């Protein structure tokens, strides 16, 4: 591990983000997972953030760091949903306009959530690259500032504040499980944890059908996968970010993948046993623990922390997943 590698977020960067999130992000609770006691499992409930997902941490950190002129001139991002809602919420609280470029396949609950927060929505393609190109074009034409969804040091350091909270709330943690999409949350939490406590294992989790980070770690460089398919609609980029990949390489012990059935099983456990509403993307880390995709043979007296990254799911979609078989949804992040 080389924590001084150029470009990597440092612990001081993450600590500096904490006061900037006041009034935007909550210090989310950790709750004991029912019936999971050897080792004990604690659930870090980022689904309880004001807009329903961890993304508010990075978005608020970045918007707070922009100049007043940049905020007044407006911001734009490209997002499958949760980051878009986070940018819309932060921009509204700071008094500036926001434009969100979303996929044509975005769940209605997420696009409607963006509109309710006062942002303009543009639909463009199905892949993150298509959305990024449109966002950059709109930014140049309108003089907007781009707020990337994951591959930026201010985004990563904002997400890393969840890692600081985890160590404060569960100081004896032996293992932290984190979902991976573009990698911003995993990068930030892993940096916060590993730069504080080298003895804590950090594992990232992806869907089997959307394994861009897993493939990149195996290749030793960021790679583009041909297609992303999963019910976890927030974890579908075709390629991880360069900066997030560097953090994963440096700070994360392992990246594992989970099946669609395992994600649905975790979703059902969270709803029926823990009484928590979590979207499929937010349940993948628990899916890795329940399915055995991650080695659970840690000290049985030391807890495991599972990050539930979001809870933005339509009631009809949740009911279908709870009552029916798993069904993959194609997207390309």
Sum this structure up briefly.
Helices cover 43% and strands 17% of the residues. With 333 residues, the protein is α/β, with parallel strands linked by helices.
Describe the 3D structure.
This protein is α/β, with parallel strands linked by helices and 333 residues long. It has 2 domains: 11-53 and 152-331, 3-Layer(aba) Sandwich (Rossmann fold), CATH 3.40.50.1100; 56-146, Rossmann fold (3-Layer(aba) Sandwich), CATH 3.40.50. 43% of the residues lie in helices and 17% in strands. The chain is built from 13 helices and 12 strands. It has helices spanning 11-20, 55-65, 68-73, 82-94, 108-116, 128-142, 153-169, 184-194, 212-219, 242-251, 260-272, 280-291, 315-323, and strands spanning 30-37, 40-45, 75-78, 98-102, 120-123, 145-146, 175-179, 201-207, 228-229, 254-258, 304-308, 330-331. It has a 6-stranded mixed β-sheet with strand order 1-2-11-7-8-10, sandwiched between helices. Strands 5-4-3-6 form a 4-stranded parallel β-sheet, sandwiched between helices. The chain has a two-stranded antiparallel ribbon with strand order 9-12. Strand 4 (98-102), helix 5 and strand 5 form a beta-alpha-beta unit. Helix 4 (82-94) runs parallel beside helix 5 (108-116), helix 7 crosses helix 8 and helix 11 packs across helix 12. It is globular, with a radius of gyration of 18 Å. 59% of the residues are buried.
